[in-house]
Amino acid sequence: QVQLVESGGGLVQAGGSLRLSCAASGRTFSRYAMGWFRQAPGKEREFVAAVTRSGGDTYYADSVKGLFTISRDNAKNTLYLQMNSLQPEDTAVYYCAADGPTYSDYVFIIGNDYDYWGQGTQVTVSS
């Protein structure tokens, strides 16, 4: 089992940047595929980005491709989401999620594929 705690959210002006972190408990972080999702008020949760357990492959939603970067540091049990050129439509609660443990090296973009979720961190982008 793994526990996830997000941090790094906050209020930023349009065009600004934030880096979210997701700290994972346990010794087997490297055996979990990881992802970021977000949920805006009144909207369904949506996929943002995912990374394989090794960090060797990533996948992004079209809306954030080229603007956001997902990465992980398995030595530090931490997942990151670097968000650049933020816009008001990026305002949401951002969640990290873990799928595993697994020996496969896949990315997952469907929320139901993930077994563990953090509590979320609020990102607000003002215009």
CA radius of gyration: 14 Å
Helix run count: 0
| Proportion of residues in β-strands | over 45%
The rounded distance between the terminal residues' Cα atoms is 40 Å
What is the N-to-C succession of helices and strands?
A: EEEEEEEEEEE
Low-pLDDT segments:
none
Tell me how many strands there are.
Answer: 11
Q: What's the shape?
A: globular
Report helical residue fraction: under 10%
Oligomeric organization of the protein chains: single chain
User: Can you give the mean pLDDT?
Assistant: 95
Q: How would a textbook summarize the main sheet?
A: 7 strands, mixed
Structural class: mainly beta
Could you characterize what this model shows?
There is one protein chain. This protein has 127 residues and is mostly beta strands. The chain contains no helices and eleven strands. The chain has strands at 4-7, 10-13, 18-24, 33-39, 46-51, 58-60, 68-73, 78-83, 92-99, 116-117, 121-126. The strands form two sheets. Strands 2, 4, 5, 6, 9, 10 and 11 form a seven-stranded mixed beta sheet that branches. A four-stranded antiparallel beta sheet has the order 1-3-8-7, with no helix packed on it. The model has no long low-confidence stretch (mean pLDDT 95).
